[in-house]
Amino acid sequence: MNNIPLVFWLIPAASITALAMAWYFFRTMMKEEEGTARMIDIAAHVRKGAMAYLRQQYKVVGIVFAVLAVLFAFMAYVLKVQNPWVPFAFLTGGLFSGLAGFFGMKTATYASARTANAARKGLDRGLRIAFRSGAVMGLVVVGLGLLDIAIWFLILNAFYDGEPTALITITTTMLTFGMGASTQALFARVGGGIYTKAADVGADIVGKVEADIPEDDPRNPATIADNVGDNVGDVAGMGADLYESYCGSILSTAALGATAFAMNGEMQLKAVIAPMTIASVGIFLSLIGIFTVRTKEGATMRDLLHSLGLGTNLSAALIAVATFIILYLLGMENWLGLSMSVITGLAAGVIIGQATEYFTSQSYKPTKSIAEASQTGSATVIIKGIGTGMISTMVPVVTISIAIMLSFLFANGFDLSMSTASISHGLYGIGIAAVGMLSTLGITLATDAYGPIADNAGGNAEMSGLGEDVRHRTDALDALGNTTAATGKGFAIGSAALTALALLASYIEEIKIAMIRAVEEGRVFTNSVGEIFNPSAAGINDFMEFFQVTLINPKVLTGAFIGAMAAFLFCGLTMGAVGRAAGAMVSEVRRQFREIKGILEGKATPDYGRCVEISTRSAQREMILPSLLAIIIPIIVGIVLGVAGVLGLLTGGLAAGFTLAIFMSNAGGAWDNDKKYVEEGNYGGKGSNCHKATIVGDTVGDPFKDTSGPSLNILIKLMSMVSIVMAGLTVAFA
Length: 734
Description:
Elements: H1 10-30, H2 37-77, H3 86-119, H4 123-160, H5 166-175, H6 177-210, H7 223-260, H8 265-292, H9 301-330, H10 335-360, H11 365-373, H12 378-391, H13 394-411, H14 420-438, H15 441-463, H16 468-520, E1 525-526, E2 532-533, H17 540-546, H18 554-595, H19 608-622, H20 624-679, H21 689-725, H22 727-733
Antiparallel strand pairs: 1-2
C-alpha cells in the first residue's frame, strides 16, 4: 500500500460522493406528492411489472454467469491458461452493472407519477423532478463504477506489490471485470429492448392506428406493458450499457498506460492513475451541471434543449479546464499533449451529440422533412427515414476518425515514425480521449434516463385524465426526452468506438502475457522463418509481424468479414425477436378488443397483466441467442483463425457495428419525433392520415433505436472483452 499516491484516494472519495448525491436526489424525489389515487395506482402497476421483469431477467442472467464463472475457473485452475482472479473479477463486474440498472429503474418507476403531478403546477417543476431522478441513474453508474475499480486496484496492488510487472498484471486483470459488465449489459439491453418494443409496437398498431385511440389511453390493454418497457429497456438497459462503457474506457486506458510507460516506474503509476483521476473530478463537475438545469413556463422545444445543453456543456467545459490542471499536477510526460487528447474526446462527444440532435429533433429540417413525407403515405415515411439515418452517419464517423488521429498524435508528440514507443503513447492518447468523452457521464446519462421518466409521466397523465394543459406539458417533456435519448445513444456509441479501439491494444498485451506464461511452462514460439520469438522482449510491432497481421493475410480478412457479418446478424436476430414478440402482442390486444365487451367504451377494464406477461416471456426467450453469439463468435474465431483472425474480427465488427448503430439509432429517433411533430398539429395533427403514416414509421423505428442500434455498441466491446479474457485459450491453440 505504500506505493499508492495520495491522489488515488480521490477516486473512492468521488465514488462515495456520487452515491451519496444519488441517495439525496432519490430521497428528495420521494418527498414529492405522487398525485391522485388513480395516478398512484397506475404507477404501482408499472413499478410492479418492471420489478417482476427484472427479477426474472436476473435469474436467467445468473445462470449464464454461473456457467461462465465455472468455465473461467476451469481455465484458470485446471488448464492454467487464465489469471486466477478472472472468475471473481468477472462476477463483480456483472454484479455492479446489474445493481446500477436496478437502482436507476427503481428510481424511475417512483419518479414518473411525481413528475406528472409536478407538471400540474408548472413545466419547470416537472423538468427538475424528472431530470434529477434521471441523475440518480447517472450518479449510481459512475459511483459504482469507480468504487469497483478502486476496490480491485487496492486488492490486486496488495497481492502483487513488489513484482516488477505488477501494474501491467493488475491493469490487465482488472480489464476482465469489464467482460462481466459487458455481458450483463448486453442481456439487459437486448432483453429490455425486446420487451419495450413488443409492447410499444402492439400498443401503437392496434390502439392508435386500428382503434384510433390516443397514446397511453387506459382502454389500450398494452399501455401498462408499454410503460413498463420504457423502464426496463431505456433505464435499466442504458444504465448497464454505460456502466460497462465507463469502466471499459478507464480500465483499457490504465492498461495501455502501464504498457506505454513500463520502463519508467514512477511515470507508469501516474499513467495508470490519470484516467481514474480525470473520471473522479468529472463526477464533481457533473454535479455542478446537474444543479444548473431549469426552465420557464411556456418553454419551446429549443428552450428545453438549451436548458439541458447548458448543464452538459458547462460540465464539459469545466472538465476540459480541469484536465490540464490534473495532468500537470500529476507530473505526466507530455501533459499538454495528453490534455489535448482528452479535449479531443470531449469535443467529439459534444459534436456527435449535436449532430444526433440535428438529425432527430423535430426542431430541425431532417425530421420535419420525414413528417412532410407522410402526406404521401407510410412507405415514403419509411424511405425518407432510412435515407436520413444513412446520411446521419457521416458526421459521427468523420468526427470519430478525426478524434482518433488527433488524440493519437497529441499523445505521442506528433511522432509519425510508428515505432513501438510512438504507437504505445499514441494508443494511450486514444484511450484517455475515451475517458474524456465519458468523464461527464454523471450528467450525460442523467439527460438520457430523464427520457423514459418523462415518457411514463405523460402516460400517467393520459391514463389519469389530468387535462389538456398538463398533457401539453408532459408531451413537451416527453418530446425532449426522445431527443435526449437519441443524443445519449449517439454518445454511447461514439464512446464505444474509442473504447473498442483502446481494447484492441489491450488485447495484444493480454496475448503477450499469455505467451510469456506459456514460455515459462516450456513452450517455444518460432516465427515464419523459424527463429525463436521471445514475447517478453517484444513490442507491439513485433507481435504484429509475428502473427502476420496484414491486409493480405486471409486470416485477417476472414476475421474482418465475420466481424462485419456479426453486426448484421445480431441486428437481424434482435429485429426478428421484436417482430415475433410484437406479433404476439398485436394478436392479444386485438383479442381483448374483440372478446372483452365494453373496453373501447370505457365500461370494462383490459387485462393489462396478460400483455405484461407476453412481453416478459418473449424478452426472456428471445434475448438468449443474440447475447450468447457475442460470446461464442470471438472464442471460435480465436481457436480457428488465431490472433490475426481475432484482430480482423474486432476491426470489422468495430467499423460495421459503429456505422450501423449510428444509422439505426438516428433513423429510429427521427421516426419517433416526426410523429411528435405531426401530433403537435402539423399536417392534420392527431388522427389524420399523416399521423397514421408517421405511426407506422415509428413502429419500424422502435426496434431500430431501442433494441438493435443501442445493443451494437455493447456487442463490439463485448467481443473485445471476450477476446481479452480468452487470450490464454487462443495462445494455447496457436
